[in-house]
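#lab-general

N.A. 3:47 PM
ok so I finally got the sequence cleaned up, no stray characters, all 301 residues accounted for. can someone with queue access submit it? mine expired

B.Y. 3:52 PM
send it over

N.A. 3:53 PM
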Amino acid sequence: MIDKITEIFCSVDDFCKEISITVEGHLLTSGSPKKQRNRKFTMSDSEVITIMILFHLMRYRDLKHFYINYVQTHMKSEFPVTVSYNRFVELQRKAFLPMCIYLKRYRLGSCSGISFIDSTPIRACHIKRKRQNKVFKELATKGQCSIGWFFGFKRHIVINDKGEIIDFLFTPANTDDRQPLKDKNFHKRLFGKLFGDKGYISQSLFEEMFIDGIHLITKPRKNMKNSLMHIHDKVLLRKRALIESVNDELKNTCQIEHTRHRSVDNFLANLVSGLIAYSFLQKKPSLNLENIDNKRIAIAA
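B.Y. 4:20 PM
back already:
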């Protein structure tokens, strides 16, 4: 585990040093000859981000318990100087922007030509307590998924056949699943075949994405005429459960969803750090394309 901590910290720290140099070169000065204070924080951004990632990787459910009873007690050699928990929560807000840039630049996978897309609810609270929720007032909305109504947000992700996240997006709960795909910035890194569920069926969306070099493949609805589909695409469409496994890892292993948030900033920091933690998992859900090709040949025969 120590080797894993060292790997994570070195990766995050190298990035934080790089971005601090870039930011300092673009800061505007006041022009006054007076010296400006540039006091260092007790804990650096790289330390805060590393602790947030470790919280998800070590499967703790309570950040306060993890920080006080594990980091400050058993990780004194790795983090010799720490701050109070309240101060650590404040430092999360400062480290949020570098955390987002680090995720988008270094921790996302690349498209292999076979991609899967899905959305999953991120609940802010129980649907019956939505009127009592003050943290996400005027932000969270009421939405519906396959298991019923919920109150909160939606997380849209696209993964490749190796189980790596290619891109992600957070939207209100009442957003249509097809809406993110209409934005070219969301699917600009994709090419080849994209597999989704029936919620992504749209003739206009299919034509727009086909022009951009993306073949959107979904199962037809019961009231639709069945169209001819290549046997290889039919087999891969059955493997769409791969993205459900990734969602399960994100929610149950990386703990990106819980209803104990007390601020929007820390809610977002928890989501982003959970996605980063998932990228560090040694074993991710993935497809064995050789078995899929053999199965296709067997079906065709």
